[in-house]
Amino acid sequence: MKQRLLCLALPFLAASAARAEKPNVLFIYADDWGWGDLACHGHPAILTPNLDRLAREGTDFHQFVVCNPVCSPSRTAIVTGQYPARHLVHQHFSGHDDNVARGMPDWLDPKVTLLPRLMKEAGYATGHFGKWHLSGNGTGIDAPLPAEYGYDEAAVWTGPGRGVFEGTSVADKVGTAHDQVGAAFQTIAAAEHVLRFIRQSKEEGKPFYVNFWLHETHHLVAATDEQKAPYPDTPEPRRTYYSAVTRADAQIGRALDLLDELGLADNTLVFFSSDNGPENSHPNPGQKFFYSVGDTGGLRGRKRSLYLGGVNVPFLVRWPGHVPAGRVDKTSVLAGVDVLPTVLAAVGISAPEGYRSDGLNVLDALEGKPFIREAPLFWEWRGPNSQPADWPQLAMREGDDVLLLTRDESRIELYDVIEDRAQQQNLATSRSERVSVMNTAIQAWRRTLPAPLEPPVPTVKSRPSPASAKGKPIDRAVVFKRWDKDADGFLSLEEYTNGLAEKSRAPQRFAAFDKNQDGQVSPEEFTNP
Predict the structure, then answer these.
(1) At 415, is the secondary structure helix, strand, or coil?
(2) Residue 31's closest CA among 328, 294, 385?
């Protein structure tokens, strides 16, 4: 009888032990990947079988938003659980002079409360593989290594320390994100580090927290002939773009397959998202963003815009037994600042005393329970307003309403983004009282942010033409080639400054050429100001 009772109790004990085991966390963050760049989101041509699988085995949240429409601040919100403006991270980290001109530090302070450090202190093995971009680069910048942020291991690009190609089977493909070969293999290299790290953590019996931050689909969007094979009849530039997405999807599949192989899938919380919406496309071959043809899924705006197309991105979550499988959630409003408090709640870690997140623990939403966001969300955009949809500088979401405005309040728009997801019907005039209430809340929020609130350097209105010593116009293409000392096809601020005879206003003049504010000047930007 005792033996029979023991046998009956074993399954219960095993299940209890599994629940008591700390869950692993795999956070997959894409780059410039549009909401519509998924087959499961209705894209008619792109093949994303592994992300589709993740959506089938988990929940697809349609109302997830990041906290800034470009890279570095969006990522800052993920790892700090706070609005990036609180850390003066307003645009992407660049060279020192660029950062100063933007009122930014050269890197995110590693001493602030950070998700990876909290996980490490709780006994997790912590790793970061892929894009970094939580610091600038160039002369005079000696950025902290990922280890100072709480990572046991890291291999990165756009950041300091060990390069992502080191120690991989594709080490001979080493290159930058702006190199055709390097761009086509960076995520493959990062995937190898992720797989090795997961295996090692399993062997050591430690739970893991690992960031797998993809290159795709940031510029340069590139693919080899072999990688383009799934799309033989697709014309460019879509063929290269689709191939890059499918290549990244395959690397995600490698990680999911390994979790299955090691018996870790049921105890691993997996996230997939993107740092912002898709890049603005260029129409002609040879232009910088010719291959950047991401899809917003019908949302208005793209990268650098506070319309939904710039901030409403994919958010897939899988955690068997906790997150319902095959569910599509179209109502729960979730945000990048929610990741830190939610992960802490999921793994049973308390936030440090005195720490205050701008996000919420949204575990109820992940678990399929009724969820209504009680706190509003805020955005501040201090970057360029060069595209028609990039004009909003401040935004707020409360309930179904999104308010967009300029700092001087000369333009204000209000949308019900449940009824009008494409943001076509401006309700600001008909709901003026609602506008007033939300605007008051935005201005109160602004007062909680570090000074200065206004951009430290005004927008440069004109672009001086390069001239010879005698004042005659010279061939810009010749000048570009002479100044591009490392021959990478772009001018850095340092290269641009070194080429000038009068250097006192070099950062402002450089910013005038750098129309898309990516920290470098392309031949097209330089020769066609």
Answers:
(1) strand
(2) 294
Vertex 293 angle, CA 291 and 296, to 5°:
160
Q: Can you tell me the distance from the alpha carbon of 299 to that of 315, in angstroms, rounded to the nearest whole number?
A: 15
All structural domains of the chain: 22-366 (3.40.720.10), 377-446 (3.30.1120.10), 476-527 (1.10.238.10)
- Least Cα distance to 271 among 238, 318, 226, 336 occurs for 318
**Tens digits of residue pLDDT in 47-81:** 999 999 999 999 999 999 999 999 999 999 999 99
pLDDT tier at 517 (50, 70, 90 boundaries)? low
The whole-angstrom separation of Cα 169 and Cα 328 is 38
Q: Give the closest residue to 308 by CA, choosing from 31, 69, 81.
A: 69
The predicted-structure confidence for 260-291, as pLDDT tens digits, reads as follows 999 999 999 999 999 999 999 999 999 999 99
| Mean pLDDT, residues 27-37 | 98
- Mutual angle of helices 71-80 and 339-347, in 10-degree steps: 30
Segment 444-501, tens digit of pLDDT: 999 999 975 344 444 444 444 444 334 445 577 777 777 776 666 778 777 787 777 6
* CA 247 to chain CA centroid, nearest Å: 18
By C-alpha distance, which of 358, 274, 271 is closest to 322? 271
Query: Whole-angstrom Cα distance, residue 160 to residue 155?
Result: 9
300: pLDDT strictly greater than 60:
yes
Which residues does 310 contact at the CB level (< 8 Å), separation at least 6? 69, 276, 277, 301, 302, 303, 304, 389
Helices (H), 474-527: 476-483, 493-499, 506-513, 523-527
Residue 29 phi, psi (nearest 5):
-125, 115
Longest dimension (CA), the chain: 104
CA–CA dist 197, 496 (Å, integer): 40
- Angle between helix axes 238-261 and 180-204 (nearest 10 degrees) is 10
Length of the chain: 529
Task: Indicate the DSSP class of residue 174.
Answer: -
Cα(107)–Cα(398) distance, integer angstroms? 31
- Give me the pLDDT at residue 465, please: 42
Sort strands 394-398 and 412-416 into parallel, antiparallel or unpaired.
Answer: unpaired
Cβ-proximal residues to 15 (8 Å cutoff; 6+ apart), any chain: none
Q: Which two tokens stand for residue 529?
A: 């100001």
Question: What type of residue sits at position 469?
Answer: A
pTM value?
0.84
Separation CA 108–CA 149 (nearest Å): 9
